[in-house]
Amino acid sequence: MANDYRNRFVTPETAAKAVRSGDWVDYGFGAGFPELMDKALAGRKEELKDVKIRGGLVIRPRIEVVECDPEQSAFTYYSWHIGDYERKLRSRGLCQFIPMILRSLPELYRRHIRVDVAFVPVSRPDANGFCGLGISNYAWRTIFEQARTVIFEINERLPRLQGVDGSHRVHLSEADYIVEGEHEPLPVRTYREPSATDIEIAKRVVEEIPDGAVLSLGVGGIPFTVANMLAESDRKDLGCHTGTISDAFLALHKAGKLTNSRKEVDTGYSSWNLAMGSEELYQWLDEEPELFRPADVDYIHSPERISRMKHVISINGGVELDLMGQENAESAGSRQLSGTGGQLDFLEGAFRSEGGKGFICLASTHRKKDGTLKSNIVPFIPGGSTVSAPRTMIQYAATEFGVAKLSGLSLKERAEAMASIAHPDFREELLRYAAEHFS
User: Most buried of 109, 222, 318, 392 (most Cβ within 10 A)?
Assistant: First the structure.
């Protein structure tokens, strides 16, 4: 480690003194998390007031500043995207949700919101003082360029890749303070076994994917099932340009399908912004860095850049779709379940791609707590629920009963197409509504 930066190395407790009452502090996004700084800041609970912390999609089981202060006398936590743990915090009144579309996040930081202190997780530095951003490139460069104080937290467990042309690289000289210490194992994201419904939906989507397709896969069960089916199929020369790289892409790599050889952008590389999955996934990133181009949100989530590639296939899950094609991807009524994230970015990119296709995949029904069956294709998105994607942006909707292509259809034709992939028990009711409202 270069001696030039030794005077910037301090204890987490010393670095945490940079936070003042009234500050906005950024923790980052996804599986990368400033574990040491979180604990150190929690230790200042009695000294601080009105400190606002922003994060999102946290998959670790605990945020110390939240758990130490349930009265929120010192700290209030805000999330850009609700993960499993944050959902539990919301139910306890300990998490505020901020809506956003990922591609707009850098501009929010540049022009509309304030950040005072940034806690940035980084990998171990090389001999020249360069570090990688591990598993969460996020919008970190934009954020710490706006921040009053930048604190790098070196996590010895993070993958060390620095990206093509430094796309995932920072230098120790860019931090005001640097902390290090022992960390817990990186948080992992696992998948349940696919249901019969997941398998049926995935089969229908896989039929729509050609050789050489560039994949953007969400982190749900259906995208993961699609990837496993592709790994066992005769498809070849698949590519990756995705918001979150996961074990779905590792499965394709193991099967020899993920070559990225036909990509018009980043040929030969898997491009991504976040990584979330198993220990084996993180090890793959660390051991074969030459396969990847991790980059920031401005780069990965740009619909214009995505559109330069042919046959971009975007696959995401949803909560419900209505007969016009509007999608709710993130809420149950007013109860926030996740967030819009980058779904719109890749739907638009796939729409603009030559031969591209954007899919919203969901089971046709779900079972309510009282045991009754409810359709996930509804006449209209109910009041209080979120419209995550407008009807004008949905190309394909897929359930276990089929795939509906909505592009270019009238309202009446859309309604008929959506009813055709609904559960048979609900089709008559949906078609009756369509006849009354879209004739």
Answer: 222
